[in-house]
Amino acid sequence: MRWIFIRLMFVLWLGGLGSMSSVAPAEVNTAGAPYHPSANITGIEFDFATHKRLAPGSDNWPMTWADDGRQYTAWGDGGGFGGTDTTGRVSNGFARIEGPAVDYRGVNVAGGVGAPRPAPFTGKCYGIMSIGGVLYAWRTGDASGIESGNRFQELWRSTDHAATWEKTPVRFEQADFAPPDDLGFCAPTFLQCGRDNAAAFDPWIYTLAPDIRTSDRKERKKATASLLRARPNTLDQPDAWEFFGGLDANGQPIWTSDRRARRPVWEDANDGSSMNNMSIAWQPVLGRCLLVTSHDEQMAGNLSIYEAPHPWGPWRTVCYEHNWGKGFIAPTTFFWNFAPAWWSPDGRDFTLVFTGVESNDAWNSVRGRLRLAGAR
Description:
The chain has 376 residues and is an all-beta fold. It has one helix at residues 146-151; strands at 3-6, 10-12, 41-54, 59-65, 71-78, 90-98, 105-110, 124-131, 134-140, 152-158, 166-173, 189-192, 205-210, 223-230, 242-247, 253-256, 266-268, 279-283, 288-294, 303-308, 316-320, 333-338, 349-356, 363-372.
């Protein structure tokens, strides 16, 4: 098999081009990573021979694992599975994923080619979550583009596995914060905790969202992210949401109902984008949160992965790569999600779902493995 090994820096194996014994590692400079290397996850491997591409022209694909055993996802600006950039095109649609990582298929549920229901709303979705058999999704804006995505974030819910959706009263707008320096956040995503949230480590539902600190991307000095939480039975109540307000003297998180008093839960000085898409997952076997995002220039395969024992940190770097996948796929990716149903029982093997622009403007998946400290 052809593997790309990243041991806190990218190590490219050319096994698919010759025998494994003839492979020479090539290290890439990872200077600038915002956090120290992880002592728990010492490397990450991607098997690009397993790369699978579907739904050309449709992007994003946040993931959740529902009570019915299926995974659910959302896409933007395309026809979804069986569609193209123009055939069946909707602004945002929902689909389910059926089958195992080695043999799966996607089925449009709301919007797109062959879907039994229309798309529920325009805009985008970068976060979807199954809790007690109910799906929740964050709606980001009402159209394509950064300007629309920055305008507002709304929480929607579905009680019939993504077929129909209703808007909840939860909505965040730029005016709710402290413009012009603090314009709130965008593209919120949920912390995934196993099937139907059954692996949750505490009684809260967490949302991670990139901050919008200024309307002028040239003035942005660093990327930061906010952390929000609410109880499962109060998700649709605007006043129930709390914001991470930093750590106290004992290193414990402070929670506040004042959104203007929130503090970054993660940051990276190498920003380069006015909307850094993120995903975050809890790996219960390892007892670690895995945060995935980009750095420097977006849509350029600049993959970064961090781990922490809590969604508020302390963060450590697993991967900080430029031009991820180069030589196997075009380095034009920008949004990655660990498929929550496709982890191996030991918490090491995974499937990463990702998207991008140009040839990667589609559903993409690739299998991989985490290298753990002390494990062979």
